[in-house]
Specification:
This protein is of the alpha/beta class and 244 residues long. Helix content is 27%, strand content 21%. Bound molecules: zinc ion.
Length: 244
């Protein structure tokens, strides 16, 4: 668990990140790990002196299994809402599937580091497809009425409703998988897109980099990899340069 800015905390589960944003006694949670990360997620809330009841809502960058794992637990026990872009709701409720298959991953699992990662995520529930029946779209444009005043930025490509959340006061943007800084399948750290088979619409993901680069923030907290400090335009350019 790292404090990356004033009142912004980043925690890592099974090679995936989530973000806690604090305002007074209230929290916004951005993303929710794998199903097997529920205990780690609850521990991360306790580490900063909070209770799960303090989470006003979970903002979802996209509804892949590694980002929605604790949503049902939080909703069932604490009534926590799960909010996302309207285009992402069908991915969360199971009406639509825009994700890599287990076969996509397994065919690449010949390197030891990849194999270790495949086993770890399988144990964390990667082959499950949690149905998030309570998924709802955020209603407004502009800042949401939640701790930290997060501003959704629609970045389609990885999935149709992929969304980054800009925290204007902190100069932080949580990018989910629209931009990552590392991944067990990647040979190098730094701003980049995930391997192409993870993206639903690669050309759209590439276009979304431009919109991301225009944001006013100097810290990227990605879905995978370490937080990255620097100019957003430079991060977007670096990721675009690596593309074939
Ligand atoms: Zn992910």
């Amino acid at each position: 668990m790292d404090q990356v800015a004033r009142d912004v905390f980043c925690a890592e589960g099974t090679a995936v990140n989530w973000v806690l944003v604090r305002e007074g006694r209230d929290l916004t949670l951005i993303d929710a790990g794998y199903p097997g990360d529920v205990d780690a997620l609850l521990a991360s809330i306790a580490t900063i002196g909070h209770r799960p009841e303090d989470v006003r809502a979970v903002l979802v960058t996209h509804a892949h299994v590694d980002h929605v794992g604790a949503l049902n637990h939080l909703h069932d026990h604490f009534g926590t809402p799960a909010l996302m872009h309207a285009d992402e709701v069908p991915n969360a409720t199971g009406e639509r599937h825009e994700s890599a298959t287990t076969a996509d991953v397994v065919t690449r699992a010949w390197r030891p580091a990849v194999l270790r990662w495949s086993l770890a995520i399988s144990r964390a529930g990667a082959t499950r497809h949690p149905v998030v029946a309570h998924a709802e779209a955020f209603v407004s444009e502009g800042p949401l009425d939640l701790p930290g005043g997060p501003v959704p930025v629609h970045l389609p490509g990885h999935t149709s409703g992929s969304t980054a959340y800009l925290l204007p006061g902190a100069g932080v943007v949580a990018t989910g998988d629209a931009l990552v800084t590392g991944h067990p399948l990647s040979p190098r750290p730094g701003p980049q897109l995930l391997p192409e088979f993870f993206d639903h619409d690669r050309p759209a993901a590439r276009d979304s980099l431009r919109r991301l680069g225009a944001l006013d923030a100097d810290l990227v907290v990605p879905g995978h990899g370490l937080p990255w400090r620097g100019d957003l335009a430079a991060a977007a350019e670096q990721a675009a340069r690596l593309l074939p």
